[in-house]
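W.,

You were right to be curious about this one. When I first looked at the sequence I had no strong expectations either way, so I just let the prediction run and decided to look at it fresh. Below is the sequence, 430 residues in total, followed by the output.
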Amino acid sequence: MGRRPSGALPAMRRHKATNTARIVFGGKVHSLGRWGSPEAQDRYDTLMAAFIASGRTSLDAGRAVIGRPAPMPEPQPAPSSKDATAGLTVGELARAWLADIEATRPDCRRTSLWHGAVAASRAVRPFATMPVAAFGSRALVDVQRRLVTTTVAAGKAADAGTPANAKRLSRRYINDIVGRVRQLFHWGVLHELVPDDRVAALKIVPALAKGQTAARDNPKRKPVRPSVVRATLPYLTAELADLIWFIRLTGCRPSEARRMKLCRIRDRNKAVWRYVPKRHKTSHRGKQRHVPIGPDAQCIVLAHTNDRSDRDYVFSPQRSVPVRKAKDGVIPMEPRKPSPRVGRMFKKDAINRAVNRAIVKANKARAEEGLSPLPHWTPYQLRYTRLREIRNRAGLEAAQATAGHSRATMTDHYAPANWQAAAGVAAASG
């Protein structure tokens, strides 16, 4: 385990034998209470606030809190008086918001709202003991600046510039977290837990502009050439290769393809099938998604659904096993049996890892043949490729309908206007 950088916040750790939360600082172990309990989180927030107030030098200012239970407010009906919320802190407000999301939204931990609320709660943790009435534009600017100087290495946050492989948070991610903090206080105003003027005070904080801060800007996602995809497919299993090519032909999201079941495909007696996912990106808004499946994509679906139930997933990792070959490379042997831990549906990270490994294998083989290496690409880039093809052939409306976008401006992000068509008109009559 590497040493914690000087001034960095000690992380909360779980002691499995006693199921308690602890922090280690200065060679001493401090117990916070039962792991995952609101009291343990409140004690940690109070200690970290005292640690930051001391200039990130010691925990002496907060050690008196250890062992003393800290009350957590339960989500209550709207109070009748504003004096009832005068002592509410930012940390208590964040925990009440998370509790309300858990209580009112089924399967909330799979939603972007939950992950955004968790990120916002972590961002305001240094201000956990501040009264909500005192949290204004200056505090939100401080949160924004802290996020700009935060770096991420090996999936964990650390102070800026400490690990050699650390990288800063992206500008769009920081703007999203700041927006979630505003959403936290908007929820508090809605439930009369926060003074009404707090939302207006937070709105005046501008978003980070591109190229004007130290925040990292991710490169714009671009389509991948079909020739690159074809060169990668032989290094994938047959199941994954068909899944990737199905995304290439339909332009659907990888999440929609990996969750597809035959029972969700309509109009199978027509020339073009219609796949209606049960859950998709905008299903929480009451919108329905329709994915058109043409003849080539239909052949892939039929090849994976023979003698199988309509309730099974069309693409399953349980059938995505490589075929072992004899040492002479001529006589194929029986496929390996999948591990009992393999699920019935592909995971997003598993698909991305498989594509990354296939690109590495393909580049190794191409290097032996003296060919140029393949560029790195992800399955989601196939959606950009397909939508641009459709817009160039059939126009913006067809691309928008295929993508399932409510607004044409979103389709423009995936498939911008055809420059070649404009250049042709300019050459002919400009």
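Here's what jumped out at me. The longest strand covers residues 28-34. And, maybe more interesting for your project: The chain has three domains: 1-71, 73-218, 226-419.

Coffee later to discuss?

I.
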